[in-house]
Amino acid sequence: MKRAILAGMVSALALASAAAADIKIAHIYGKTGPYEAYAKQSHDGLMLGLEYATGGTMEINGEKIVVIEKDTQLKPENGKALLEEAYGDDEVDLAIGPVSSGVALAMLPVAEEYEKLLIVEPAVADSITGANWNRYIFRTGRNSSQDAVSNAIALAGEDTHIATLAQDYAFGRDGIAAFKEALESVGSDVAHEEYVPTDTTDFTAAAERIFNAMKDLDGKKKLFVIWAGGGNPMSKINAMDPSRFGIEMATGGNILAAMKAYKEFPGMEGATYYYYEIPQNPVNDWLVKEHEARFGAPPDFFTAGGMTAGIAAVEAIKKAGSTDTEELITAMEGMEWETPKGTMMFRAEDHQALQPMYHFKIKVEDGVEWAVPELVRALSIDELPIPIRNQ
């Protein structure tokens, strides 16, 4: 009887030890809400990235990767509470997410309090790796400055006047601030700014203010839109015929569903984070092939980002030889790794992932549901002077 009890205790201890050996990653993201499409892409990409980086085993050095999903519902208070739960109750080794910049900003202090890593993907606001940053934050996604600098390079020109329209929260405000700064660096400026609530569906008043500010200017005139989610400001403003004032629409890249609306704008230029046909490298080849085989469609904007985060997590743990936070930070500062966009690098000063961006021109192709962002030129890391904003 004693032997049976002892054997049972040994078995229980072995199971507990095996469970403790799991590498636990929390994916905290807005599964439900206006950015649901972004969230699904991000999670699909994350799982593909973990699979790719582990050669299909979902293990690192014999330890199983366990992914715990948590839904923020795009509420900052939920993101904060769920990250506390993940670090405290679930005892995860690191966390990845969220979708929304507002949610991310609420989560940053939690990582510092618990002294655990948060890999931010795909929230964009500069302040995440800027004014609100702490040393436990790494971001694989692009930031507002990367969007802004690449779009400034694509859009600015001699005697070109640019107005902006953006959502009135961290993503939009940080994006326009960075865009203005980038334009100044190439000798241009913003002629007029408009900010509207995130759920705006009627853009008449904002558009009229933009038109009034731009109509008497000489030279080229462009309206640059930064937008996330629904509302479709591009098409709605275009229906008001900005061309009568010589104003052209302009914006950055987006998910394929949103780029259906871009078919109204053949020849429109901008810069994008990712389009599945643009990068030419083995990681992207694998992603495109596997995604089409499993989901019957090409990988999208945030799928590539999720995959990048998954690969980064695996490569960091391999490099550190541990899931210890301090060892991971040491391993990740300056770390280079291969992604669907090619080689990326975590800048040591702010842990922002430096990465290429892509200047595009919209082309409409028969049989393709969305507008195709045809590559004008790839903008390398060295061509994108991204400010360090946490100093």
Automatic annotation (TrEMBL):
Keywords: Amino-acid transport, Signal, Transport. InterPro entries: BCAA_transport, Leu-bd, Peripla_BP_I. Residues 1-21 form the signal peptide. The keyword Signal applies. One of its GO terms (biological process) is amino acid transport. Residues 23-363 form the Leucine-binding protein domain. The keyword Zinc does not apply. PANTHER family: LEUCINE-SPECIFIC-BINDING PROTEIN, PERIPLASMIC BINDING PROTEIN OF ABC TRANSPORTER FOR NATURAL AMINO ACIDS. Belongs to the leucine-binding protein family. This is ABC transporter permease. It comes from Phaeobacter gallaeciensis.
